[in-house]
Amino acid sequence: MAATEPTIDRDSFGRVIAVESLKGGVGKTTITANIGGYLALSGARVLLVDLDPQGNLEDDLGYADDERNDQGESLAKALMFGGEVAAITNVRENLDVWTGGSALHSVTAVLSSKMGSDAKNAKLALAKILAPVVDNYDFIFLDCPPGDGVLQLAALAAARWVLVPTRTGAKDIKGVAKVAERIDQVLDVNGAIDLLGVVLFAVGTASERKDGTVVMKNAERDARADLDAMFGVGEEGGIGREIVFNQAIRHSEAVASQSGRAGLLVHELDERAKQEAKAGIAWWKIRSGELKNKQLTSATAGSVADDLQTIAQEINDRLLEAENEVLEGASA
Ligand SMILES: Nc1ncnc2c1ncn2[C@@H]1O[C@H](COP(=O)(O)OP(=O)(O)O)[C@@H](O)[C@H]1O
Ligand SMILES: [Mg+2]
């Protein structure tokens, strides 16, 4: 029996964003959780989909011990056999999650074997289960595992946009080109997909001169130049728009570790730092033993939170611009 040609109504998929990279440790999960969290905080309805068998999203959002956390069981079943996914609703106000985790290992095997006989349906496994719920959300972020397996392909096949985070090293930058090439592999089922942009992750802090001009570290400047050259930004025949987001995410191990341990988003950590300041909890009181068994929240949380919020705004701006172009095209 010939496989049926799958059809997906793409009308409502305009704000489905795959956060994808071949590498691990480049900020995919951090961005998914925090940008999603920030957009939800500003009133948008957001769904985060954790496609990673490692299920790290639970640490950023602190739902590891939620009784509804099934380690990706429900998502895995739906990806293999269709059907509804049981979301953890209201992880934060306006923020739902489809949990990932170890149950997703089996999906890779099943979809990989299906790729041989019925590639289109295998690629569309995620798009099909998203279709019934896309209208319920303003933004959907797909947090991908590292690598170039079939789950990542399914994310690309579901997404209108791809967001690629990277560190600034030369090898990291080369990896960005590979993700862009992967897009070609889903064009047969998802002609609308496009690159939303590249986010620089864990960069050295820029310094400010006396006259107020900001000087970025060489590593960031080089990475931006390499990426612009890669996509032909500013060149004739190039991509014709900016690719790298203006705002980068600054490096802070303290913020990363505290947020993961507490299950708090970075802006929530920043809120905690402010509460501590108000309560008179200061490092010198802790050092002198006046306050025992206290750990002070990193003061850098505010700066990292600002970075993430600025990127969320840039993402929203780029989406609005693209949507306006479509509207203008339609009315022209
Ligand atoms: N601003 C930051 N600076 C440095 N490290 C960070 C920052 N934010 C998060 N991290 C840490 O970097 C690591 C990789 O981030 P993560 O978002 O999990 O990447 P990925 O999902 O791409 O594997 C994690 O251990 C995370 O805690
Ligand atoms: Mg991750």
UniProtKB/TrEMBL annotation:
Record Pfam families: AAA_31
Ranges of residues in domain AAA: 15-188
InterPro entries attached to this UniProt entry: AAA_dom (IPR025669), DNA_Partitioning_ATPase (IPR050678), P-loop_NTPase (IPR027417)
Protein name (Swiss-Prot/TrEMBL): ParA family protein
Organism for this UniProt entry: Microbacterium alkaliflavum
